[in-house]
UniProtKB/TrEMBL annotation:
Residues 79-473 form the Amidohydrolase-related domain. Pathway: Purine metabolism; guanine degradation; xanthine from guanine: step 1/1. The keyword Signal does not apply. This is Guanine deaminase. Binds 1 zinc ion per subunit. It comes from Serendipita vermifera MAFF 305830. GO terms for biological process: guanine catabolic process.
Length: 479
């Protein structure tokens, strides 16, 4: 059992952010948030803790004054933030990080991406690579991550193993692709693709959950995108999805102009791109749609109707010149939106970087007079405020993954997926104090609001001191 004592920030919805200058959180040995008291004064901490430990409800949960409770007291410049949710990334593409920016999507796939993914046929290479990938992703703060694997079953099992053993909450999918790739990197038939997908689902379900909570690693059905899947494969994936109505699905949609026109050519009977997935029963609650840069009005309405979510990947959208997603518009319509690093279309596995690029995307859109909205009182056409940006990275992402009742913010009964963010002051130990980011430090009179803003806009992995998933520390440089 652990008690955290320190400032806290989280969101309740896209426009409501809560700051507490000093909170006390009790985390059960199962990683559940048992109690929270916000805005405590510093001279009443001990007294408040004693009251909480003697509270009848908390005692029923196993808390007592004489119990074995670890106290974690945050230092100056530190605060608790919900764990980040990365709703879209590609584990086999990590060796390509920070290269390939000269291409647009279709050439980028052919010239750098498919060759990198093909290497995963070597399962030993997969184990070594994926250990490194998960370790690095966790260091950037995503406590939950939606991973695309390669086409290979064994390699993708290795990815699920690594998430499981590192203690990361994850959705792991084997890519489905039976056409429009290279001769040596394509599945031989729809049947082969489906059988391997079923085998992966079965395998991930055997990974044991934590002692008393639900599994951390989930399978996710992963057609790469409509172009790479024959009608027969999409049909089979649709029936697989209907056999598993709660299972998550991830794919790409409306990323780039050439991709959209090729999709229309391949599926002339579909009303539009979103309609292709809908036709095959793949657009539903729990579907995570990567990019969504150029959705038409009809598509936006359909996505909302089906209760699918959108993974906004602004770093990738800029890097391979795909476009800009109208996140404000989607949120105004009540569509669930989270952030995705989309490595290696995006060049960094950093959600903080993605937050910064999501902000820039909204600012560019706000400077574009052609964007008009019937929801003028909403977020469309405006720069996204701090509350929205933090929401996208945390609770918004959780809702895209249908995990909003479990994680995403600090609420009694939820699992404690959290970061200890650190913005050290001037001076301090070591190189620039704490994690050593020279670009950001707190000033004497900073409020918590200012500190959070500094973290979001000047921070990187060096400002993420500790990473907790379900109460267990899984990464970070803090002792
Ligand atoms: Zn992607």
């Amino acid at each position: 059992m652990q008690i955290f004592i320190g400032p806290l920030v989280h969101t309740l919805n896209p426009t409501t952010i809560e700051y507490s200058s000093l909170s006390i959180l009790g985390i059960s040995s199962n990683g559940i948030i048992d109690f929270i008291t916000n805005n405590v004064t510093s001279d009443s901490v001990d007294r408040t803790i004693e009251t909480l430990l003697c509270d009848a409800e908390n005692m029923k949960k196993g808390w007592s004054k004489d119990g074995n409770v670890a106290r974690i007291v945050l230092k100056n410049g530190e605060f608790l933030c919900p764990g980040f949710v990365d709703t879209h990334t590609h584990a086999p593409q990590f060796p390509n990080l920070a290269r390939g920016q000269q291409y647009e999507l279709m050439d980028w796939l052919k010239c750098v991406t498919f060759p990198a993914e093909e290497r995963l046929k070597d399962t030993e290479y997969a184990s070594v690579l994926y250990k490194e990938v998960v370790r690095r992703v966790l260091a950037f703060g995503p406590t939950t991550c939606c991973y695309y694997g390669s086409l290979h079953l064994e390699a993708t099992k290795a990815l699920a193993d690594e998430c499981h053993s590192a203690g990361q909450r994850a959705f792991v999918g084997k890519c489905n692709m039976d056409r429009h790739s290279s001769e040596t990197y394509v599945e031989p038939s729809p049947l082969h693709s489906i059988q391997a997908t079923e085998a992966l689902i079965k395998y991930i379900h055997t990974l044991s959950p934590l002692p008393t909570s639900s599994p951390l690693v989930h399978p996710i059905i992963t057609p790469r995108f409509a172009i790479s899947c024959s009608d027969e494969l999409l049909k089979s994936l649709g029936s697989l999805a209907s056999k598993h109505p709660q299972m998550a699905i991830q794919t790409h949609i409306s990323e780039n102009a050439k991709e959209i026109s090729f999709t229309k050519e391949l599926f002339p009977s579909a009303p539009h791109y979103a309609g292709v997935y809908d036709m095959y029963g793949l657009l539903r609650k729990g579907t995570v749609l990567g990019h969504a840069c150029h959705l038409s009005e009809e598509e936006i309405q359909l996505v909302k109707q089906r209760d699918a979510g959108i993974a906004h990947c602004p770093t990738s959208n800029f890097n391979i010149r795909s476009g800009m997603a109208r996140v404000g518009c989607y949120l105004d319509r009540g569509i669930k939106v989270g952030l995705g690093t989309d490595c290696s279309g995006g060049y960094a596995p950093s959600i903080l970087r993605t937050i910064q690029d999501a902000c820039i995307t909204s600012k560019i859109l706000s400077l574009t007079p052609t964007i008009s909205s019937q929801f003028t009182s909403g977020l469309e056409g405006k720069h996204l405020p701090i509350s929205t940006l933090l929401h996208l990275a945390t609770l918004g992402g959780a809702s895209v993954c249908c995990l909003e009742d479990k994680i995403g913010n600090f609420v009694v009964g939820k699992e404690f997926d959290a970061l200890v963010a650190s913005v050290p002051g001037a001076g301090g130990e070591g190189r620039f104090g704490g994690g050593g980011n020279p670009g950001v430090w707190y000033q004497e009179n900073d409020t918590l609001e200012t500190l959070v803003e500094r973290f979001m806009f000047g921070g990187d992995d060096r400002n993420i001191k500790d990473v907790y998933v379900c109460g267990r520390k899984v990464s970070g440089w803090g002792q």
